[in-house]
Batch of 2 targets.
Target 1
Amino acid sequence: MSWKSLPAGGCLAAIAAAAVTALIAGCAGLHSSQAATQTYVLASVPASTAPASAVTSGAVTGAVSVHVLRPLAAPGLDTDQIALLRDAQRLDYYAASRWPAALPDLLQTLAIDALRASDRFRAVQPDATAFAADDVLQIEIRHCEVVYSSDGTPVVHVQLLATLGHQGDRSLVSSVTAASEVPAAANRMQSVVAAFQDAVNRSLTQLAAGLAP
């Protein structure tokens, strides 16, 4: 039957019916069997246990201020996806699991918090801040991924290289490498993230302790 053979009222009814059918089909297409993406966060290294009076008065133990640049990441790690290695060489990512930001942005924030907690610097700021600094810190993320051991246990590998230099002439002050490997308690995403938390905290604590302003 053609549209021309329908009376005016029948034509409008046919159009309305077609629109309803399309809407129902569209709503059905919204349902998916894929798991919803989960976002996992990493907490900062615990703050310094300095006396409250020192904190409120603004007293610090360090004499140097530092800007922390956005970390450089090994190929495949500058992403918000959670990385893993299969068969020792095949880079992959966990499905439906993400960090809240790209890994370098996440590590920059955590590194700033770790350095502030160490009390080794007068001030620690991101490089985008409006305040001047004496030194600049560049971190390289060499490893921050899961490697599955021969028995199937997920092990988080983190390796960071930090280079501290003077802001004015970028001359080298110190360089520190930190690494940690933490097996997950179980082959479940929450356990894997807990292992990431432990490995990242250990590595950042090593960096903060090893850097000499």
Target 2
Amino acid sequence: MGRPLGQHFLFQRSILERIAASALPAPPPLCIEIGPGPGALTELLLERTERLVAVELDPALADNLRRRYAGEPRFSLLEGNVLETELRGMGPAVVCGNIPYYITSPIIERALALGPELIRAVFLIQKEVADRLAAEPGSRDYGYLTVATQALCAVEKLFVVKPASFRPPPKVDSAVVRLTPHAEPLVADYAAFRRFASQCFRQKRKTLRNNLGRADIPYAGMRAEQLTLAQLAELFQALRAR
């Protein structure tokens, strides 16, 4: 179970407890757990929230969870693909989960799409992706994913998890990240800013002059990876005002 879907189940209790504490330092009205698998983290999240909604694709794992929590009124299960499951409209929520590596970015986008309903998100993901999410300008990991995520939320890489903590063990290190939405949006039109950022990083080693096809702009001779998020937002707003 789980392996065909790209999952590596975390079993080390101390790490599971750290994830639950990072996601739910105080009891929120709702926690949405993505990919609960056998329910090791589910148990700890339930201790810290008023209501838990679990989204599980694997039918066998879903049946196991349904039986295990049949007498728990605070638990509900949505069986299906999280990328096709409507998460909005449930109210303010913390989103948490051990995410299959191959769909990390789409799941993060799904969580961020909750907008003002998202309290925070805590995910166990591939360390390489965590490094990109939390990257600083000028580093090799800084790119489109960094900017698109940090435009909406503060990113913290909390701690690294080694392969031996999983069954089956993955071939790479993992890391826990916490995403906390900004109180005020960085840009008014986030969808347009994402398209702009994608164009800026289209060819990472090229200058903004090349990637945007404009020589008459601020920072024209610099590469996108050299600009802070605030500078990219400034450039975006300047171009929209023209």
